[in-house]
Amino acid sequence: MKKTLIYLLLLVVVAAATWFLVFRKDGGNTMQAGETNFRVKDTADVGKVFLADMAGNQVLLERKDDHWTVNGKYIARKDAVETLLAGINGQEAQYVVPTVSRDLILKQLSVSGVKTEVYNRNNKKLASFYVGNSTQDYMGTYMLADGYKIPYVVQIMGFRGYLTPRYFTSETEWRSRVLFTYKPEDIKKVEITYPEVIDNSFVLDNSERPTVTGSVQMSIPVNEARVKSYLTLFGQGAAEGYENDFLYKDSILLKGVKYCTLTIEGKNDPKPFVMDIYHRPVDKRSKNTGDGINSPWDGDRYFGLVRNTGDFVSIQKMTFSRILRSFGEFYVTDAPTADTTASKKAMMHEGK
Prior knowledge:
By secondary structure, the protein is α+β, with helices and mostly antiparallel strands. 20% of the residues lie in helices and 30% in strands.
């Protein structure tokens, strides 16, 4: 019995020594407290996230009452913030990067990693780590806790993919693309001017009883049902993206063909929203042309210059065609809805 106990004790000692030599040598291959601090369970308490890459790009996301801001200048994209917080909430270290590839991963993190700092609403730092590239199978992400030397492969349980795309550092990409948002009762006036077909231009006055006026004197009353339905379409107008660095921006603004100018005046706005909308020339991104094979214009997008901010944006025709209506449409009997486009007979704003 004593010999058996001695053998068991020897076995335990040998196993412990083997574990120490194999798993703890050169930093080890087991998870240690602090080295795996990549997760914040209560993201409702997160008040600030700081992101910085090795190229000098920095983004500071801050929680306000009902939205987040980017670098204290712009409203942040709600979807991007929610995706980032979901990652921070669910990501966990799965295993230590093997010793054989550790130096390579550390080098990659030092060159292309994104430093991430997470703070609570009281400005207390909750986590600080570096986010690297994906594993070879794209099912994990290399991360390194700030102040440590052992990188880990991090994943979200049940999620197939890697997390790097959530940690981007472009201020422009973090900006909300929402250009305007109005409730029908908050709109005072809508004016659209079409320089190519001036008879399509109109002014909709919603200050009291709605009226729609244009260059043509109408002998029939305005279709008030259409006006009310039309005003519901201004709940949210969003750009496809910001094009402030577009190479030919100045050429478009100086020599481009303006499609229309959209003006929205809110009852409580200090200044109206004004956007000049331009035909977008066909380029390599164009998948469709507006008027047949030989049309010079992109059939899916316009360019827009938001006068209020100076931003040059790309907007989708499918989104804005709902509000870029023509004068005559408000004097026909069939009322449009938010989910339908105007009839071909009434649609004149394309100049047809």
